[in-house]
Q: What sequence folds into this?
């Protein structure tokens, strides 16, 4: 007959019935008992010392009061240092109306007032440029108003920038190219190359000349030819032009849809 299951499991490292596990448990229990016994003895000694010191102090022995008390005091380095009082921000309007004060608060610049229990904050708003609140607080007069340049949508930012540039361009007077070249040379000492200068001069000459006589004659002939048509013919011509434009737009939309479809397939 073979040995039982208990005998088999007692030879495993993880089983509590193993000899070495029982030994470890016994040692740990004995160690705990010794520690508890040592702590109890130390408590008894401390109580006896305190009783002796109390009896001597009652009899009037001042030296006994300071006898062994130093052994139970914490070292000087462990004591917490007193935190320095940080200077808080003060506002001029806090003492403007000379409200009644307590005796300890009179003529004391270190005291920060809280009128009506409202906390005075040393912050400045970005929108209205006032002190005491932030742009996210409901106290701000511009809280519900949206700024043009403060937006999360990039398209709105670009639109606002373009509108500002358009307004500024209307207000500012236009300057010719020759005047700009002259100012660059006099103020900053910069001079453009001869090729660029020649191109600027040719552009100015062409603008001064305007359209040629042949182009003007062509435009006049086209206007006379268009005026010879009746209203029904003009309407038909406009319909044909609009149809061509609509076809072009449809082609563009189809191309865009095909591109999007291809991108979705790749993803």
A:
């Amino acid at each position: 007959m073979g040995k039982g299951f208990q005998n088999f499991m007692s030879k495993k490292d993880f089983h509590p019935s193993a000899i070495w596990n029982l030994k470890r448990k016994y040692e740990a229990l004995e160690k705990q008992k010794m520690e508890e016994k040592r702590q109890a003895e130390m408590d008894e000694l401390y109580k006896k010392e305190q009783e002796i010191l109390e009896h001597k102090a009652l009899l009037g022995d001042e030296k006994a009061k300071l006898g062994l008390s130093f052994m139970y005091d914490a070292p000087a380095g462990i004591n917490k240092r007193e935190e320095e009082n940080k200077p808080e921000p003060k506002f001029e309007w806090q003492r403007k109306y000379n409200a009644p004060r307590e005796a300890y608060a009179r003529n004391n610049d270190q005291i920060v007032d809280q009128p009506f229990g409202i906390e005075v904050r040393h912050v400045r708003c970005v929108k209205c440029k006032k002190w005491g609140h932030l742009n996210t607080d409901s106290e701000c007069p511009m809280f519900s108003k949206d700024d043009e340049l403060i937006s999360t949508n990039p398209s709105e930012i670009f639109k606002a920038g373009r509108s500002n540039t358009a307004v500024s361009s209307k207000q500012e007077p236009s300057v010719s190219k020759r005047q700009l070249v002259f100012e660059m040379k006099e103020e900053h000492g910069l001079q453009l190359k001869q090729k660029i200068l020649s191109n600027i001069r040719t552009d100015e000459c062409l603008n001064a000349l305007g359209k040629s006589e042949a182009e003007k004659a062509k435009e006049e002939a086209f206007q006379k030819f268009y005026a010879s048509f009746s209203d029904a013919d003009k309407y038909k011509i406009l319909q044909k032009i609009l149809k061509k434009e609509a076809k072009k737009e449809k082609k563009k939309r189809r191309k865009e849809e095909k591109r999007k479809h291809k991108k979705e397939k790749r993803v």
User: Anything to note?
Assistant: Residues 228-267 form one domain. The longest helix spans residues 19-59.
